[in-house]
Automatic annotation (TrEMBL):
InterPro entries linked: Allantoicase, Allantoicase_dom, Galactose-bd-like_sf
UniProt protein name: Allantoicase
HAMAP family (UniProt xref): Allantoicase
Family of this protein: Belongs to the allantoicase family.
Gene3D superfamilies with a match to the protein in the record: Galactose-binding domain-like
Biological process annotations from GO: allantoin catabolic process
NCBIfam families, alphabetized: allantoicase
SUPFAM superfamilies the record matches: Galactose-binding domain-like (SSF49785)
Domain Allantoicase residues, every copy: 28-173, 193-330
GO molecular function terms noted in the UniProt entry: allantoicase activity
Superkingdom assignment: Eukaryota
Length: 353
C-alpha cells in the first residue's frame, strides 16, 4: 500500500480532513487483545479526546500517562487489537505520541483484517502501514494513496515497546445493511455510513458528533458553534446519508444544551452525485424554520416521502448547539412504512421531562 507522511499542520486540508475516525471508542471500538499495558491501558489510545498532560502525577506502576504504555526491554514487540465499532475502509492514520517525551514507541505499524464472526484464530491480516518511526511528543500523520479494503479489526504493532498517546484511523464506515430494504433505518447514523461532508462552523465541537451512537453524557458530545453577532445569520452542516433513501421522520436531541440550543432549526435535502452537493443543487424543504428548546427531544414528521435523497442540510438559526440528529427512512427501492411513523424511544436523563 503506497502512502505518504505529511505534517500534522496539513491534516485539515488533506484527504483525511472530513473522514471518520473509525477506531474511536465513541463509535464503539474497543481493545480486545493486548500483549502488555503495564504503565497505561491501550484503551486510552482510542479515546476521542486529546491526551492530557499531568506532570508529577504518579500511580503504583510509575508516572501516570494518558495513552498506551508498555514496560521496557521487550525482546520482540508489543501489539494490541482494536475491534472496530463498525466495519469500514481506511485512508490514513495519526499515530500520536504527545507527552511521551522519551518513553514513546520508537516505531509502529498497522495491520487489518475482515472477520465479522469475531474469531480471529484463522484471520488473514493485511499490512496497511509498514513500520514507521515515531518521534517523541508528535503527531505522525500518514495518508494512504487509496482506500483500503473493508476491515473489522486493526492491529497496532509497537516496536519494541513504549507509549502511544492516541491512535486515529481515518476512513469511512462501510455498513452491512439488512437484506430487507423495507426496514426503517437512521440513514444519517454513522453506523449506517452517514457522515459530515461540510460545515460552516465547528468552533467548539464538530458537526459529525450529531451522528454518533447513543445520546452522549455532556455538552461536549454534540455540535456547538461560536456565537454569531450578524443579523440574519445561520450555521449549517451538510451530511451525506449512508444510502440514498426516503426520509420520514427526524429527531433532534438538545440534551445538555440548556442555554445554548438553537433559536430555530431548518432541514433540507437533495439528491446529488457529488460528495458535497454542487452550488446549483436544488434543496427540498423538510422542516421549515421551527423553534426548539433546552435539554429535550424534538420529533418531526417529514414531507416529500416520495422523493429519495442522498444529502441533508441541517441549519441552526442563528447559532448554538445540539447533541444528536436522527433521520429515519428506508433505502431507495424499499416500501414506505405506515405513516406517520411512531416516535422512537430513547433512554432519558434523570433531569429530563
Amino acid at each position: 500500500m503506497a502512502y505518504q507522511r505529511i505534517p500534522y499542520e496539513d491534516l485539515a486540508k488533506s484527504p483525511l480532513a472530513k473522514l471518520t475516525d473509525i477506531a474511536s471508542s465513541a463509535l464503539g471500538s474497543e481493545i480486545i487483545e493486548v500483549t502488555d499495558e503495564f504503565f497505561a491501558p491501550a484503551s486510552n489510545m482510542i479515546n476521542p479526546l486529546p491526551p492530557v498532560h499531568a506532570p508529577g502525577k504518579f500511580v503504583s506502576t510509575g508516572a501516570w500517562m494518558d495513552g498506551w504504555e508498555t514496560k521496557r526491554h521487550n525482546q520482540n514487540y508489543d501489539w494490541c487489537i482494536i475491534k472496530l465499532g463498525f466495519a469500514g475502509t481506511i485512508r490514513g492514520f495519526d499515530i500520536d505520541t504527545t507527552y511521551f517525551t522519551g518513553n514513546q514507541a520508537p516505531a509502529a505499524s498497522v495491520e487489518g483484517c475482515f472477520c465479522p464472526c469475531g474469531n480471529l484464530a484463522g484471520a488473514k491480516w493485511v499490512e496497511v502501514l509498514p513500520k514507521e518511526s515515531l518521534p517523541p511528543t508528535s503527531h505522525n500523520v500518514f495518508v494512504l494513496d487509496k482506500e483500503t479494503e473493508k476491515f473489522t479489526h486493526l492491529r497496532v504493532n509497537n516496536y519494541p515497546d513504549g507509549g502511544i498517546a492516541r491512535f486515529r484511523a481515518y476512513g469511512n464506515v462501510d455498513p452491512i445493511f439488512p437484506e430487507n430494504k423495507d426496514e426503517v433505518l437512521d440513514l444519517a447514523f454513522v453506523g449506517n455510513g452517514g457522515r459530515s461532508v461540510f460545515c460552516t462552523n465547528e468552533h467548539f465541537t464538530p458537526a459529525s458528533h450529531l451522528l454518533l451512537p447513543g445520546r452522549g453524557t455532556h455538552m461536549g458530545h454534540g455540535w456547538e458553534t461560536k456565537r454569531s453577532r450578524i443579523p440574519g445569520y445561520k450555521d449549517y452542516a451538510i451530511f451525506k446519508l449512508g444510502a440514498k433513501g426516503h426520509l420520514v421522520k427526524a429527531v433532534l436531541d438538545t440534551s445538555h444544551y440548556k442555554g445554548n440550543y438553537p433559536h430555530k432549526i431548518i432541514l433540507e435535502a437533495t439528491d446529488s452525485q457529488q460528495e458535497v452537493p454542487e452550488e446549483t443543487a436544488v434543496w427540498t424543504s423538510l422542516i421549515e424554520p421551527s423553534s426548539v428548546g433546552a435539554h429535550a427531544l424534538f420529533y418531526f414528521d417529514l414531507p416529500s416521502t416520495d422523493k429519495a435523497f442522498t444529502h441533508v442540510r441541517f441549519s441552526i438559526v442563528p447559532d448554538g448547539g445540539a447533541k444528536r440528529l436522527r433521520l429515519y427512512g428506508v433505502r431507495e427501492g424499499g416500501k414506505l412504512p405506515l405513516l406517520p411513523l411512531a416516535n422512537p424511544t430513547f433512554e432519558k436523563f434523570d433531569d429530563e421531562e
